[in-house]
Amino acid sequence: MNRKWLMAVAPLLALALLAGACVNAPASTPAPGPANGPVAASQFIVPPVSSQQTTGLWVNGEGKVTFTPDIAVLSLGIESQEKTVALAQGKARDAMNRVLAALKDKNVADKDIRTQIFSIHPVTQYIQPQQFPVPQPGREVIIGYRVSNTVVVKIRKIADAGQVIDAVSEAGGDLTRVNNIGFTMDDFTPLRNQAREKAVKDGVDRAKQIAAAAGITLGKPTYINESGGFFPQDFAAKSFATEAAGGGFAPTPVSPGEQELSVSVQMVFDMK
Fold it and tell me: Cα angle at 174 between 71 and 107, to 5 degrees?
């Protein structure tokens, strides 16, 4: 009888022991948050928001320098269209060789002549659909080929730019294409340095004015960044219609005018 009683109560004792183990087990650490009360400093540390780059007096300075360009940059080329690629390319090649010879006659060095674009494209024409005598749909047909050869020429003496334009126009004849002319400087370094000095001085002057208006003592700059600038290389979109040289015509007039170079700086000053 005792054996039957033990077999009956054994499952109940096992369940009691399992429940006791769950009650005595240590509780898991709750995630920090408002629902669990305040978080100790050792559990969660918030990094400081401010830093040296986000505090202080911020100003922008700008420096500008006006200059007259000393180099002309000319984009010119040859364009030929014929019924076959061979004919178009042959005429374009001969005309470009004459143009290059004219450039050398005007003392343009080989290093100052750079091929920019060379292309061969078919020329197509759309044929309207026909109904009589036999119905035919509209279609594109190739009627020829166009060869283009464009070079960029650096003219180191701007006063000669007009004569160079006239010389290449005569050499290339009706195949000549003068796309545009631009003006720039051979070396921007001295101008850039001048503009940079002006930009820093402008930033310091602005910071002093703001500090005086705000009634604060201005400290030393803690951060300076050259945030950009404008270094011009003016390419005016101009096409030139020139008369053949040697016929008593004056050279094509070319005027570079004045341009402006600018440098910007961003500065942060300490405040006392």
Answer: 30
